[in-house]
Amino acid sequence: MRKLILATLAATALAGTGIMISGFAQAAATGPSTGIRAAVDDLNVVQDAQFIFEGRRHCWYARGWNGPGWYWCGYHNRRGHGWGGGEGWNGWHRR
Predict the structure, then answer these.
(1) How far apart are CA 56 and CA 83, in angstroms?
(2) How many helices (H) and strands (E) does the chain have?
(3) Are 71 and 56 a contacting pair, CB within 8 Å?
(4) pLDDT greater than 70 at residue 17
(5) Which segments of 1-95 are extended strands (E)?
C-alpha cells in the first residue's frame, strides 16, 4: 500500500511540474557559423567528385595506394579497392 501511495505522489508531482513549465521551447541562436564552415572546407579531407563511372563517384588523388590517379571517392587509402586509372583514364583530366 505504501508503494502505491508513493507512486501516486510521484506521478502527481511530475504532472504538476509539467503543467507549470509548459511553454514554447526554442533553441538559442548562435549566429552564423561561417568560421567553422571555412575551417572544415580548408581540411579538404575528401575531394569533390568530378566524374561518375559505372555508378561510382571518382575523385583525383595525388597520393593513393596505387600512385596518383582516379579512385572511388574516399578509397585512395584502401589498398586493392577503388582504383580507376591514372591521368587520362576514360579521357579524364584533373583540374
Answers:
(1) 11
(2) 2, 4
(3) no
(4) no
(5) 51-53, 56-61, 69-72, 83-85
